[in-house]
Amino acid sequence: MGKDIKILVIGGSACGPKTAARARRRTPDAKITILEQGQYVSIATCGMPYYISGVIESEKSLIIKRPDYFKDVMDIDVLLGMRVLSINRKAHNVQALNIKTNEQQDFEYDKLVIATGGSPKIPPFPGKELKNILTLSKFEDAVALRNAVTSGKLKHAVIIGAGLIGMEMAEAFTRSGLETTVVESLNWPLPTLFDKDIGLHLAKYLREKGVKLLFGERVTGFEGDNEGNIKRVLMQNNSIDADIVLMAIGTTPNVKLAKDAGLAIGALGGITVNQYLETSDPDIYAGGDCVENTNLVTGNKMLAPMGSTANKHGRVIGTNLAGGRDTFPGVMGTSVVKIFDYNVGRTGLNEAQYTTGFAPVTAFIPVADRANYFPGSKEILVKVIADRTTGRLLGGQIIGEGEVAKRIDVLVTAITLGATVDTLANLDLAYAPPYNGAMDPLHNAANVIRNKMSGLAQTVTTEKVKNMIDSGEEFILLDVRNPDEFEKARIECNQSVLIPLPDLRQNLEKLPKEARIVVLCRSSIRAFQALCTLRGAGYRNVAFMEGSILGWPYEVCTMPVEKK
Amino acid sequence: MGKDIKILVIGGSACGPKTAARARRRTPDAKITILEQGQYVSIATCGMPYYISGVIESEKSLIIKRPDYFKDVMDIDVLLGMRVLSINRKAHNVQALNIKTNEQQDFEYDKLVIATGGSPKIPPFPGKELKNILTLSKFEDAVALRNAVTSGKLKHAVIIGAGLIGMEMAEAFTRSGLETTVVESLNWPLPTLFDKDIGLHLAKYLREKGVKLLFGERVTGFEGDNEGNIKRVLMQNNSIDADIVLMAIGTTPNVKLAKDAGLAIGALGGITVNQYLETSDPDIYAGGDCVENTNLVTGNKMLAPMGSTANKHGRVIGTNLAGGRDTFPGVMGTSVVKIFDYNVGRTGLNEAQYTTGFAPVTAFIPVADRANYFPGSKEILVKVIADRTTGRLLGGQIIGEGEVAKRIDVLVTAITLGATVDTLANLDLAYAPPYNGAMDPLHNAANVIRNKMSGLAQTVTTEKVKNMIDSGEEFILLDVRNPDEFEKARIECNQSVLIPLPDLRQNLEKLPKEARIVVLCRSSIRAFQALCTLRGAGYRNVAFMEGSILGWPYEVCTMPVEKK
Question: ipTM exceeding 0.95?
C-alpha cells in the first residue's frame, strides 16, 4: 500500500479524532477523512454534566477542536452532518447521507476506522416521547439539559438509573435548585461498580445532600399533561412528580454499521477486535465505546465506555494505520466520579459480583487521607480485595471527601502488574504529612488483609453485626472507645458494652471467657488492638467489626446515655 | 525460646514504638520494653515544620501516644530519659543511664531492637556554639524553633542546606514573617533529589515566594554579638545577617552503639541489615533511620531516613520478633514535600546523577493536572525517566501547584513492579474531568518517551536551547503559538520566528529546508505537531524544545512586540 493511502474514520467524538491525529503524525501523505453525523467534532463529552450544572460556564469549553483546526494544522478533512449508512467491504467504500442536503455520497477507503460510540438505552416505556424526557450523550443533549434546568420553570427532576451519569447529574440537578430523585432498580448507588458495604455509605451521603433515592424500583412508564410535557414517573409500586427526566440506565455500543457489514460482534454486543484493534476484517479497525475490551483481571470481555479508553484506542489505531504494530492490552474497569464533595473511585473486581474463580479476602477501613494531625485531613473509606490463596490484588473501592483518585491509581497499577498485598504493604509511596500518614491508607489496607490471611485478625462485617443485633443474637458488642465518643454516637442495642481500651486489661472479669465478643471503636484500630489483647488473654470467640463506627452505614444513637 | 521472651527496643520515635506494638499483637506474653533517651515517645517528627510555622497549632498534636497508653493498652514499658551506653551481646544485656537520677541500670534481652535514628550533621564551623544556631530533629528542637520564630525578636533567618527539611523550614520561616535565605553549596534546591531542569523551576518559585537563595556557596563560620547570639553567617565569598540559623545539611545514622558492639556497619555509615532486618547478630534487629536500605532500582545500598520507611521496618521487625519471617524489600528513594503551594515529589533514579548502567531517555512535560477545561485545573511539570534500551521505567520528578503525589505513587508502583513505558501508557487510570484529562499526564509522559524511542519525536532541552542562543548559534527558534500568546511572554532572541501552527502549512517557504529548526509553543503539544508537519514536508534538521515556554526556567520577555 502506498504512502498516500486513504484513511476513513467514522465518528468524530474521542477515538475518531485521536486516531486521525495520530495517523497524520506518522503518515504525512495519507488522505485522512473523518465522517461525523453530528454538528461537532472532538467534544469533551465527559465535561457535559459540569456544563449543565454551571461549574463549567461556557459550552465553548467543551469544544476541544474545530474542523478548521483539523484541516489547517493536520490536513485532516472533517465532514459534519454526514451519516454513514453502510459499509461495502468488497468495494472498500462507505455510503453516507449528507443530512443537510439529503444527498448520498460514497467515500473510498484503504483503511477504515469505526468509532461510532454508544447510545443511551431507552426502554419502550409508555410515554417515553413526552417532552423533557432526555438522555445525555451528545453535545446537543447537554445544551438541551442546561437550557431546561436554567429555565426556572422546572421543580422536580427524576433520574432513572444510579450509574455514573446518573450520579453526576444528580449533583448537577441538585446544584441547579431542582428537587432531585434517583430511581434505581438495584439497591444502592453505582450498584454494578461498588459493593453494598460502600454503596450504603454513598446512599447516606447523597441523602444528606438532599438527593432522594428510590431503590429497588422499576419504572413502568410516564404520564404527561395536555401539552405533552412529562408530569409523573410511574413505577411498579410508586409514582412521583417529574418536570424533567433523565434516562441514564447505560449505553449500548453502536454496532449496526459493523454488524450489517458482516463484522464479528461479541457476546456483550460490542464489535470484536483483537489486541491491534483490528476487527474481523483486517482493513477495518474499531475503537472507543463501540468495541469490547479485555478485562485484565479475569481475561473476559467487558464493555468499557470511557473517554480515557477511547483516546488510548485512538492512539493504537493511528499507529497501526501507519504501518505500526501497537497493542491495547485491556482495561481494569476503573472509574472515578466526583459526587458533591465525595470522590468516588473503584477498579478491578468487586467482592460480591465479579470474583468468581477467586476466594476473596477484603480490607474495609475508614482512614484519614493525610496525617490525622494535619489540618484539613479528611476521612475516606477504603476497600481492597485480594485473592486469599495467593494474596494477589483483585480490586479496590474508595469513597469520601479525602483524596481517592491517587489510591485508586496505585491499585490500578499494582493490579495490572500482578502485585500481591505483600508488595502493596511495602511500596515506597510518597510520604509527607500534607499527603498521608507515615503508613498510607493503602499500606494499612494491605496489612489488614495480611493480618486476616495470617489468622491474626478475625473480623465480621457491619452487615453481619446488624443482622446479629436485629435477630437478638446473644453476643457482646464491645465498644472500646472513650465515654465521650460513646456518648456522641453509638450503636444502641442490648448487646452493647462500653470498656475503653486503656481500661480493658483491668476489666477482663466483666467479659466471660466463652462469650461471643465483637469489638468496635471509631475506625477499628483500637478494636484490633483489643482483639489482640483479648486473644492474648485466652478469649477465643472474638472478632472486631471491620470499619467500626465510621464504617457503620446504619443508624447510630446520638442521644445522651441514660444514667443507670 | 519461650513465649515470655524479653524484647528490648532502643529508641522511641517511629520504628521503635511500631516494632513494640506489632510484637505485642503477636506475642501476648513477651516482656517488651522501650528505652528512649528523650522525654517523649512516639512523636510525629515529620509534622514539626508545620508546628513551627503555626499550621499545626498545638504541640500536643505531634504527640501520638504517651507512655501510659503503651502500658495500659499494650503492656509495653516505656522508659524515658534512659540513655543506652553500651550493648553486651555476650551477656545479652544493655547498659543504660537514667538521665534524671544519673544512675546506671542494666536491661536484659532475648531479642534487641536498635532504632536509634539519625542526628543532624553539624560541621565544625567556628562559632557553631552561638545561640540560635539550631537543628530540627527532636521534639525539643521544634519547640525551641517555634519559640524563637514567635518571639517577635528575629528578622533574618538563614537555612544552611536546601534539602527536604531546609525547604519545609524555608516556608515555615517565611510564613512566620522572617526574611529567609537558604545557602546551598550545590546549584538548585533539593539538588540530590531533582535534576537541574526541574530544580531551576523550583528555585524560580521559591524566589517568587520571597525566599532568597544562595547557590554554590559554602558556609565557613558564624559571627555573634557580645551576648553570644548569632549575627552573621560567613561564606567563602559572601556573608549575610542572621538572627537565627537552621543547620539542615542532612543527617547521620546513629550507629555508635551498634558499632561499639561490633555489629556490621555499611559503607554509607548505616547499620547493615538483611531482608529480615536482622543485623549481623541474629538476636539483634535494627530499623529506621539508623540502617542502610536497598535501592530497588539499582540494587545498591542507600540511606532512606523517612518516617514511612521507619514504620514499615517496625512492622517487619515486630513480626519477626514474634517468630515470623517477614521481609522488607527496599526503597525507591521516594519523597514528596509541600513547599508553599507547590507539591514537589520524586522517586527512583535521577537522570543526571544515578542512572549509571542505564541509557536514560526522558519526558519533560508541562501539563494540566486535570481536564484543562475544568475550573481549578493547575499546571504541573512532569519528568519521567526510562531506560532507552528496554523502556523500563527508572524514575520520575513532578512539581507544581497541581496534583503531584498521585502521579509519583503510580510511578513508585510501576517502577517497583518493573513496568515499561508501554505499560504506563495504557494503564487504566481513573479518569474524570475533576481529576485529569482523558489522557493522564503520566500517559502523556509515557507516550513522549515512546515517540522519542521510536524516532518520531526529536527534542532538545531548554538548557541546550539557552546555550545555543547565548553562543549565537545559527538556527531558527520557531514559535508556533498565537500572536497574543507570543506578545505576552516569549523567548527574545535573534533566532526567534513566529508562525502560528494553523498558518504553518501555508508558510513553509519562510523556512529554508536545510535550516536547523527548534520548535516551541506553550507546552510542546503544538510544537510536536509542527515537528511532524515539518518532517512530513521534508525538513530533516528539526526538533522541538521539550517543555516549551512553560518548561523554560530562564527569563522571558513580556514587553510589547516592537512593530517593524
Answer: yes
Separation in Å, CA of A279 to nearest CA in chain B: 20
Contacts of B11 (CB under 8 A, 6+ apart): B34, B35, B36, B113, B114, B115, B116, B117, B288, B290
Contacts of A47 in chain B (CB under 8 A): 371, 373-374, 433
Q: Which chain B residues touch A425 with a CB distance below 8 Å?
A: 312, 315
Q: Does position A330 have pLDDT exceeding 60, yes or no?
A: yes
- For residues A11-34, give the mean pLDDT: 96
Per-residue pLDDT, averaged over A11-27, amounts to 96
| Chain B residue numbers touching A68 (CB-CB < 8 A) | 502
CATH of region B133-248, choose from 3.90.180.10, 3.40.50.10420, 3.50.50.60, 3.40.50.300 = 3.50.50.60
Nearest by CB to B532, from A25, A44, A526: name it: A25
* CATH architecture assigned to B6-119+252-321: 3-Layer(bba) Sandwich (3.50)
Which pLDDT score, from 0 to 100, does residue A561 have?
Answer: 82
Rg for chain A, CA atoms, rounded: 27
At residue A514, φ and ψ (nearest 5 deg) are -90, 0
pLDDT level of residue B239 (50, 70, 90 thresholds): very high
Nearest residue of A to residue B306, measured between CA atoms: A431
Contact pairs from chain A to chain B, CB under 8 Å: 265
Q: Helix, strand, coil shares of chain A as percentages rounded to 5?
A: 30, 25, 45
The pLDDT of residue B563 is above 70: no
Question: If we measure between CA atoms, which residue out of A57, A45, A52, A4 comes closest to residue A28?
Answer: A4
Active-site annotation holder among B46, B493, B532, B557: B46
Q: Provide the pLDDT for residue A563.
A: 65
A133-249: CATH topology: FAD/NAD(P)-binding domain (3.50.50)
Region of A456 (left: φ > 0; alpha: ψ -120 to 50; beta: rest) is alpha
Q: What are phi and psi of A244, to 5 degrees?
A: -150, 140
Topology agreement, domain A6-118+252-321 and domain A459-551: no
pLDDT by residue (tens digit) across A98-122?
Answer: 999 999 999 999 999 999 999 999 9
> Cβ contacts (< 8 Å) between B28 and chain A: which residues?
532-533, 535-537
pLDDT for B166: 97
Class for the domain spanning B459-551: alpha beta
Active-site annotation holds for B15: no
Q: Which CATH class is domain A341-453?
A: alpha beta
Matching residue, cell 476484517: A281
Q: Determine, for residues A428 and B332 on separate chains, whether the beta-carbon distance falls below 8 Å.
A: yes
Domain ranges of chain B: 6-119+252-321, 133-248, 341-453, 459-551
Say how many CA atoms lie within 13 Å of B294 toward its Cβ.
15
Q: Among B475, B445, B469, B450, which Cα is nearest to B543's?
A: B475
Least Cα distance to A249 among A160, A167, A172, A133 occurs for A160
- Residues from chain A that touch B46, judged by Cβ atoms under 8 A, are 371, 431-433, 438
| The pLDDT value given to residue A512 | 97
Confidence of residue B554 (pLDDT cuts 50, 70, 90): very high
Query: CB distance A427–B406 less than 8 Å?
Result: no
Determine what percent of chain B is predicted with pLDDT higher than 90.
Answer: 94
A334 to B431: CB separation less than 8 angstroms, yes or no: yes
Distance (Å, whole) CA A63 – CA A60? 5
Active-site choice (A46, A493, A532, A557): A46
B429:A308 CB<8 A: yes
Is residue B465 within 8 Å of B551, Cβ to Cβ? Answer: no
What would be the CATH architecture of the domain defined by A6-118+252-321? 3-Layer(bba) Sandwich (3.50)
Contact B44 A310 (CB under 8 A): no
| CA pair distance B323, A298, nearest whole angstrom | 36
